[in-house]
Specification:
Strand content: 25-35%
Structural class: alpha+beta
Largest sheet: 5 strands, mixed
Radius of gyration: 15 Å
Low-confidence stretches: none
Number of domains: 1
Distance between the termini: 25 Å
Shape: globular
Number of strands: 5
Length: about 120
């Protein structure tokens, strides 16, 4: 979990959709979605450099465990973070990173069995 007083390093990403997003990692937690355990990675994103909003990546624990069983080792916490970040970049490229309507929970995308191998391949893992 990130410290509230932590200095945040704002980064930029030029996406395939033509936008340049600014973002920073806010925090990571273990979480649950509908009975599914996993890692929740929260980023703060800006599309216009005026306003910022939270956007979440949920990494399914079951996908990580299945990959570990097939490959003889589990991913490290750093590798899990890297997968979440690659999923964020994919969401940027696909143009799906948007602020939630006022009063609604932050939007999120997932890492699951369907996309884990592709994301790891981009990382050379």
């Amino acid at each position: 979990m990130a410290r509230p007083d932590a200095v945040r390093r704002v980064k930029s990403y030029s996406a395939a959709d033509g936008f340049v997003y600014q973002y920073y990692f806010f925090e990571g937690n273990r979480a649950q979605r509908g009975g599914t355990l996993g890692g929740e990675f929260t980023y703060v994103v800006s599309v216009d450099r005026q306003t910022a909003f939270p956007f979440k990546i949920f990494v399914h624990q079951s996908a990580l465990e299945a990959w570990g069983a097939r490959n003889g080792r589990l991913l490290s916490s750093s590798e899990e973070y890297a997968v979440a970040k690659m999923r964020l970049f994919k969401a940027f490229d696909d143009g799906v990173v948007q602020a939630s309507p006022h009063g609604q929970p932050p939007r999120e995308v997932v890492v699951n069995d369907a996309n884990l191998e592709d994301l790891l391949g981009q990382l050379g893992i």
